[in-house]
Automatic annotation (TrEMBL):
This is glutaryl-CoA dehydrogenase (ETF). Pathway: Amino-acid metabolism; lysine degradation; Amino-acid metabolism; tryptophan metabolism. The keyword Transit peptide applies. Residues 17-130 form the Acyl-CoA dehydrogenase/oxidase N-terminal domain.
Amino acid sequence: MKTPDPHDFLAVDRDLTEEERAIRDTVRAYGAAELLPYVADWFEAGTIPDPRAIAKGLGALGVLGMHLDGYDCAGTNAVSYGLACRELEAIDSGLRSFVSVQGSLAMTAIHRYGSEEQRQEWLPRMAAGDAIGCFGLTEPDSGSDPGSMRTRARRDGSDWVLDGTKMWITNGSVADIAVVWAATEDGIRGFLVPRGAPGYSTNVIHKKLSLRASITSELVLEGVRLPAEAMLPGAEGLKAPLSCLSEARYGIVWGAAGAARACYESALDYARDRVQFGRPIAAFQLTQRKLADMLVDVNHAMLTALQIGRLKDDGLAHHSHISFGKLANVRAAQRVAALARGMHGANGITLEYPVMRHMVNLESVATYEGTEDVHALSLGLALTGTPAFR
């Protein structure tokens, strides 16, 4: 019997279909050739120098809104989308975030809640990477409690007028279209705010210590006047944006597994090559114990992602399943990244190796799309039937 593959110890990928393997391999090869050689420099610079080129490349690859049907979207299953997220986050969380915001947040909101005219106008261009979208829900004083948002939309004749501020918005300063959520007299509604609308401005957030290979912005709306047809007609109440967030969180379940795998593989290679006291550090018991701990976390994360993906494809994934996956896999990835960083010694704090970059990125991944505490409470509600958020 063959010794298990260190890179897929439990043969998780054995359960993938031929099409799923092809998508995995295509995204992995693209990432290795077109993204990985540059991502450390982007991280050090604190930006993506040419986000439109990135969008065009990812659009040509077919991963933008790939899980959506029609409108030039690929229409893949949930597992295939998850595999793409895994391979992209194995390179950098910022790249998976780019795809998540474009496809799981902005495009999903338009696809699910938009009018046919809105879908026809935006989705094909966004799928191709010709237009970039962002998702404006979080505010400076409204993170885990989005229902307390202060952004308001009021009617003025047949128009809507929006005032407010959104914060921590990925792609915000380069987006051609922003899906902005605002409180109205009739509850929370979604609006499409185009780039260049009078009263609409963006500010890039600088001095980040995490998710640096990504553009994060503040959106400012000061009397932004929009026509009636700018509202997403199918989005009523907080349930609409939260359903989009659940789609994005699903990508994080897979993405965190990719970040964990990248850190583990770097540590394994380093331990085999790094010689101390006359032999590779992989020969020492303490190192092997750490590698074994990382191996368990990585494979548990892979199994969790695949199981939730299969549930999602069968229409059986509850939002608490997604909370389980994000809570478990991000926590596992953080453990792996910390062990891997230590195993690299002083080299582990440099951008020559990916571990420190993943380690600090995971601090953002642990925070956005619901903190660990929020997802724990979501699981508590599923278990007890009693909400503990308030």
